[in-house]
């Protein structure tokens, strides 16, 4: 799915000489998932939900910051904050109650880590968690282990 997304972005840039919007990229990924459920020449080869996983697609485009959740069925929804995976029900509840559009990037990072800490079965450490940010100025930035450890140590 990620490789497909990368190819779609490059094709779009080559064809239109502009970056692809995050929503359009998410639609392209979901179209791939949907294409596996279509009738083909050989009905025995028909598969549904071949990827079996949800995907969070985040980016910053001319419309501002964007976050989409694509599910295995090929549908997608835009969110301001979203949790997927095990423990996502409790995490999503916390995000809905605590997230604010006025948050700084540091405050949003702290909320994400605090939420993970509350729902994870294992103790949260820089060995079992990664934190990435996506901004207009910096693009995609994966927090290094030392920076992540500092954030984790400062959690309540």
H and E string:
HHEEEHHEEH
The major pleated sheet works out as: 3 strands, antiparallel
Gyration radius from CA atoms, angstroms = 18 Å
The helix tally amounts to 5
What is the strand arrangement across the widest sheet? 1-2-3
Secondary structure class reads alpha+beta
Named CATH architecture of the largest domain:
4-Layer Sandwich
Number of domains: 2
Low confidence ranges: none
Fraction of residues in β-strands: 15-25%
Helix content: 40-55%
Tally of extended strands? 5
Structure report:
- This protein folds into 2 domains: about 1-80, Glutamine Phosphoribosylpyrophosphate, subunit 1, domain 1, CATH 3.60.20; about 80-155, Glutamine Phosphoribosylpyrophosphate, subunit 1, domain 1 (4-Layer Sandwich).
- It is built from 5 helices and 5 strands, in the order ααβββααββα.
- The model has no long low-confidence stretch (mean pLDDT about 90).
- It is an alpha+beta fold.
- Strand 2 (about 65-70) and strand 3 (about 75-80) form a beta hairpin.
């Amino acid at each position: 799915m990620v490789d497909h997304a990368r190819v779609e972005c490059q094709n779009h840039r080559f064809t239109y000489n502009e970056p692809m919007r995050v929503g359009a990229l998410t639609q392209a990924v979901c179209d791939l998932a949907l294409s596996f459920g279509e009738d083909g020449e050989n009905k025995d080869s028909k598969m549904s939900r071949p990827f079996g996983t949800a995907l969070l697609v985040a980016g910053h485009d001319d419309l501002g910051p964007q976050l989409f959740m694509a599910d295995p069925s090929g549908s997608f929804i835009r969110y301001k904050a979203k949790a997927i995976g095990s423990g996502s029900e409790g995490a999503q509840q916390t995000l809905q109650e605590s997230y604010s559009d006025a948050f700084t990037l540091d405050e949003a990072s702290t909320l994400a880590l605090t939420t993970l800490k509350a729902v994870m079965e294992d103790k949260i450490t820089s060995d079992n968690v990664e934190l990435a940010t996506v901004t207009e100025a910096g693009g995609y930035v994966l927090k290094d282990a030392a920076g992540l450890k500092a954030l984790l140590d400062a959690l309540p």
